[in-house]
Amino acid sequence: MNKFFLDLGKQPLANNYSSSYKKNQIKYSLKLFFNTKNKMVSISKRIPSEKMFTNNYPYRSSMSKTMTNSFHKLSLEIKKRFKPKKILEIGSNDGALIKNFEKDKVIGVEPCNNLAQITSGKGYLTYNKYWNYNLAQKLKKKHGELDLIYSANTLTHISNLNDVFKSISYLLSTNGILIIEDPSLLECVKKVSYDQFYNEHIYLFSVISVTNFIKKFDLEIFDIKNLETHGGSIRYYIKSVKNKKVKVSNKVKNQFQKEKEFGLDKFNTYKKFAKKVKLSKKKLLNIFNKLKLKNKNVIGYGATAKAVTIINYCKIENDLIKNFVDTTPEKINQYMPGKNIKIIKYKKNSLDNVDYAFLGAWNFKKEIVSKEKKFLKKGGKFIIHVPFPKII
Ligand code: TYD
Fold first, then answer.
1. How far apart are CA 388 and CA 392, in angstroms?
2. How far apart are CA 227 and CA 238, in angstroms?
3. Rounded to an integer, what distance in angstroms lies between the CA atom of residue 61 and that of residue 153?
4. What secondary structure letter does DSSP report for 61?
5. Which pLDDT value is given to residue 51?
């Protein structure tokens, strides 16, 4: 049974930036639910993928050093540890991972045409398609079974999870390896980072819920890695239960236990989380309102989808955040979805006259703080809302 625990209000499509402010932009309800049976946390309103993953999708994996380094490190591990003949990446985006492999060793699947064109333009075989059973059948006919399938921050975006895992287990060889990584529910609940939820993020995974969900496909997690990316993610290494060659690491049991001790399998944990979220909103607005009274120049740093959830849930207008700065070409001179707040191209001197910068990309805090030493030295300050709203 799905039990409701938090209403994040009416939200526009998170990555739907537009060149002018549209007052009557369509908004969808964003409500969070906990499944008491398989312990999965998900949002209720499902928006057709075609509306979200369009041909000018603005999210680019290669935009941050943190992400490109993480993908590079993973590619070295894959080559050494699993020695796959062929790798399939579901949601290959702009090629941040696949560019680390020889061209004849990787296949990309990417529904957003603008992104698929980047990798196919560089000579990487890329299917400009949504991941589903039809595509899995087509791929099996053409390439046979595959020994390594990888997907980062993609499977949680697909509503029909049953079809997702059915298609993967159909295409994966018996001794094949599936690696997925997505934001960690445990980290989200601990950090009160409710901005991990937006219309694209349909599910937030935990070791508990993934274990429960993949059982019916004869799949099991045999290893995990906690990552710092996206504010705390988990990389799940998955295999068929029929593959007896690979042992299940104690790390899986330990993480499962840690999540249980924190109460990720209990509805009450989410009720407490919801209370904390409401308090977080109050505190954040308090900070912004005080700075407004002092006439401070406040901007947003990183026009993330996460920030879209925050400004729409907290009803933050351009009197509190004047504009956002961002490095992504597709976001520049566009407006934050749902709000009359413009995104300006990030330049070295962007923060020269800024007093406070709200970290929309708080997950890159380390990278940003080290880049903005000059800003901090002259007395500039960042505002962050995790694990609770404060000025740093
Ligand atoms: P990310 O946190 O991955 O976003 P989302 O919530 O949308 O999944 O995206 C980071 C955004 O922050 C991206 O638009 C690029 C931007 N950014 C900067 O503008 N400057 C920076 O130094 C960094 C690290 C990111």
1. 11
2. 17
3. 10
4. G
5. 84
Task: Say how many Å lie between the CA of residue 313 and the centre of ligand 1.
Answer: 20
Q: Tokens at residue 8, please?
A: 């994040």
Q: Which two tokens stand for residue 375?
A: 């800003």
End-to-end Cα spacing for the chain = 41
Q: Are 375 and 301 in contact (CB under 8 A)?
A: no
Backbone angles phi, psi at 20, to 5 degrees: -140, 155
Contact 52, 43 (CB under 8 A): no
Pairing of strands 356-359, 298-301: parallel
Residues 228, 67: Cα–Cα separation, whole Å: 10
CA distance 163 to 184: 22
Per-residue pLDDT, 292: 98
Q: How far is the CA of 361 from the centre of ligand 1 (A)?
A: 5
Closest CA to 263 of 34, 44, 43, 42: 34
pLDDT along the chain (392 residues), means of 10: 97 93 92 98 87 84 88 97 97 96 97 96 97 98 97 96 98 97 98 96 97 98 96 97 96 98 98 98 98 98 97 98 95 97 97 98 94 96 98 96
What does the pLDDT read at residue 66? Answer: 84
User: What pLDDT does residue 22 have?
Assistant: 87
Residue whose C-alpha is closest to residue 190's, from 262, 281, 280 = 262
pLDDT of residue 74: 97
Nearest CA to ligand 1 atom 16: 302
Q: What residue type is 12 in one-letter code?
A: P
Q: Is 160 in the pocket of ligand 1 (CB under 6 A)?
A: no
3-state secondary structure of 331: helix
Query: In the prediction, which pLDDT does 196 show?
Result: 97
84 alpha carbon – ligand 1 mean position (Å): 31
- pLDDT recorded at residue 231: 95
Residue to mutate, 191, 194, 327, ligand 1, most ligand atoms under 8 Å from C-beta: 327
* pLDDT attached to residue 56: 82
Position 8 scores a pLDDT of: 98
Structural domains of the chain, ranges and CATH numbers in brackets: 34-267 (3.40.50.150)
The pLDDT, as a whole number, for residue 64 is: 80
For the stretch 268-302, what's the b/e string if a residue is b when 16 or more beta carbons lie within 10 angstroms of its beta carbon? ebbeebbebbeebbeebeebbeebeeeeeebbbbb
